[in-house]
Design brief:
Blueprint: E1 2-3, H1 8-22, E2 30-39, E3 51-52, E4 54-68, E5 72-77, E6 87-91, H2 106-116, E7 124-131, H3 141-156, H4 163-177, H5 185-192, E8 197-202, E9 208-212, E10 218-228, H6 232-249, H7 260-265, H8 272-296, H9 300-316, H10 323-333, E11 338-344, E12 349-357, H11 361-371, E13 377-381, E14 388-390
Parallel strand pairs: 1-13, 5-7
Antiparallel strand pairs: 2-4, 2-14, 3-8, 4-7, 5-6, 8-9, 10-12, 10-13, 11-12
Helix pairs in contact: 2-3, 2-4, 3-4, 3-5, 4-5, 6-8, 8-9, 10-11
The structure holds adenosine-5'-diphosphate and magnesium ion.
Length: about 400
């Protein structure tokens, strides 16, 4: 299947229908959408205060609903892949009775956002969530859910509208309620995404540089391996700790402040594995700023070369790829009109991103299908806007 359109209209219709079926006494008053993302380059650099270069996707999470006077929060997801139950209700939290994470797991992302919301007191409300971002596919369905829920809350109980603080609150939600110590990239791009642009984000200063990505001859192809390895739970925090360890040995606050020369000079003092982890991060930060420059000057050959280097570094030094992702990348680059390809997102499954000529799309997809040992799903995507309110 190749999906080019967001289908947000269809998603909104579905969410409204489910809302009316489940809450017949209420009328949905608010609709919002927040996108997933694909990261073009700059993987595992955000929590090292480095650079990332994501684009917001046309695939979104939609939340529809309304306030209620009963002091109850009712949540319902239409996502088939979400754990059971799909619906839950609880009283509006108070300072003496705050929310805590629990079952179902999917609701923790939402509860976390409610907990860290930057205004209040919140009223009761009914909300239905629907998404066409694949869950757990490395396209950040989790951040799109958090940012969509935050945007929904802004409509029923406005905060000060600060976008940076919004992204940070959503990141905090994922840290504290979903136990995922993620960097800021996913929430940031879901809030700030710009149509026709990739965003070069400096994850230390949070400064954003939009880079145009709207060449009609160029296509961003996402290929979902449709595998998800379960060891990711402990791998991500381990990588994060290894990076902190490397920075500590080098006497720096983060790997952002460490040059390749510094790292090489300290090789004897570092465990071999930690050395390799740091080498990935330091080289990836440089590749990301170089890639942003290449994209700006439309040097797609150079951009593609950096993508492949990034993949090799993630596979060899950072060890977060897997055979399926390696297969997809190898199949993608083995033909005419393809500039580069790499795994995207945290790794251990999920998706690859490929940059190619629009004329080469059909052949490339066919080649990947022929060569891949599993069953892949393809999405042709365009840089889209960040979270926004929908007309009902
Ligand atoms: P990714 O963000 O790459 O998709 P994560 O593991 O970070 O992968 O987040 C996936 C989890 O987020 C799901 O397992 C589910 O708990 C939650 N989630 C995302 N979108 C939804 C949704 N629409 N409804 C319910 N839960 C969702
Ligand atoms: Mg996620």
């Amino acid at each position: 299947m190749v999906m080019a359109e967001s289908g947000v209209g269809r998603l909104l219709e579905d969410a409204l229908r489910v809302f009316r079926e489940n809450y017949p006494m209420y009328e949905p008053k608010v609709g919002v959408a927040a996108p997933g993302r694909v990261n073009l380059i700059g993987e595992h650099t955000d929590y090292n205060q480095g650079f990332v270069l994501p684009v917001a996707l046309p695939m979104v999470t939609v939340v529809v609903g309304c306030q209620s006077a009963d002091g109850i929060i009712s949540l319902l997801t239409t996502a088939k892949e979400a754990d059971e139950p799909k619906q839950l209700e609880f009283p509006v939290p108070t300072e003496s009775k705050p929310l805590s994470p629990g079952i179902p797991c999917w609701a923790n992302y939402v509860k976390g956002v409610i907990h860290h919301y930057r205004a209040g007191p919140l009223p009761g409300f009914k909300a239905v969530m629907a998404s066409n971002v694949p869950l757990g596919g490395g396209l950040s369905s989790s951040a799109s859910l958090e940012v969509a829920m935050y945007t929904f809350l802004q409509q029923i109980c406005p905060d000060d509208g600060d976008l940076m603080e919004k992204a940070l609150a959503c990141q905090k939600a994922e840290h504290t309620f979903a136990s995922m110590p993620c960097g800021i990239m996913d929430q940031f791009i879901s809030v700030m995404g710009q149509k026709d642009h990739a965003l070069l984000i400096d994850c230390r200063s949070l400064e954003v540089t939009p880079v145009p990505l709207n060449d009609p001859n160029l296509v961003v192809l996402i290929t979902n391996s449709n595998v998800r390895h379960t060891l990711t739970g402990s791998e991500y925090p381990t990588r994060r700790m290894q990076c902190m360890e490397a920075a500590k040995v080098l006497g720096k606050e983060s790997l952002r402040d460490v040059s390749m020369a510094d790292l090489k000079a300290a090789e004897a003092h570092l465990d071999k594995e930690i050395y390799c982890r740091a080498r990935h991060v330091i080289s990836e930060i440089k590749r990301t700023t170089d890639a942003a420059g290449a994209l700006k000057s439309r040097d797609y050959q150079e951009f593609g070369k950096l993508m492949v280097q990034s993949h090799n570094s993630l596979r060899g030094d950072y060890e977060v790829s897997c055979p399926e992702l390696d297969e997809l990348v190898a199949a993608a680059v083995d033909g005419q009109g393809v500039y580069g390809s790499r795994m995207t997102g945290g790794g251990f499954g999920g998706c690859t991103v490929t940059l190619l000529d629009s004329a080469a799309v059909e052949k490339t997809i066919q080649r990947i299908k022929d060569k891949y040992s599993g069953t892949a799903t393809f999405y042709i995507t365009k840089p889209s806007s960040g979270a926004h309110v929908l007309k009902l």
